[in-house]
Structure prediction request, 217 residues.
Amino acid sequence: MAGSRPAAPAATPLTTADGAPVEVRRSARRRRTVAAFWENGTAVVAIPASFSRAQEREWVHRMLEKLRLQGERRTRGAGRRRPRNDADLAEHAAGLSAKYFGGRAVPSSVRWVSNQNSRWGSATPSDGTIRLSDKLQPMPQWVIDYVLLHELAHLLVAGHNAAFWRLLEAYPDTARAKAFLEGVSFATSRGLARPGSDNVDDGLDDDVVDNKSPGRN
Prediction:
């Protein structure tokens, strides 16, 4: 139509430095307090409704930096000890998610289990639960971290497609850990592992997804 004004360009979605989405929530109940937290993989910044746009930009930047530093401290703290109990494991998983996935993978629970004889770990994206075989506990920490990251990645991408493996490219020991686990599986299947151990396979291409196991990719 003649004389009509061009449409304003759409605003660029706000994201963290790691690419996680950011949501700004204005609340009339807030007067001077500002809060920031992770919610289902989104960085939420809650500000008073009375803030100007300039104040919003300033506080969003400030609070996202605070979230980033908290994630780094959590990662350093989790790395000081091996995660032996479920609480340690959940804390360590949160640190790995913050470091490698920008905190986007938020499990509802992470626990050691003793009944997984055919896989190292499993995840159920529908309820956010992750389980790791306790047979991993004597293994190097970088192997345990890989399995944890593998299951955390399934909370973001259910299958083993290209997007899934791109997430794991951020972890520098992915190839080495996969080779390590394949070696353990090879030895165990041929009776070369310690006596009394259960047969296990690579266990990571059969993760539980919505209580169903997808085919191998």
User: Anything to note?
Assistant: Residues 193-217 have pLDDT under 50 and may be disordered. The first strand starts at residue 22 and ends at 27.
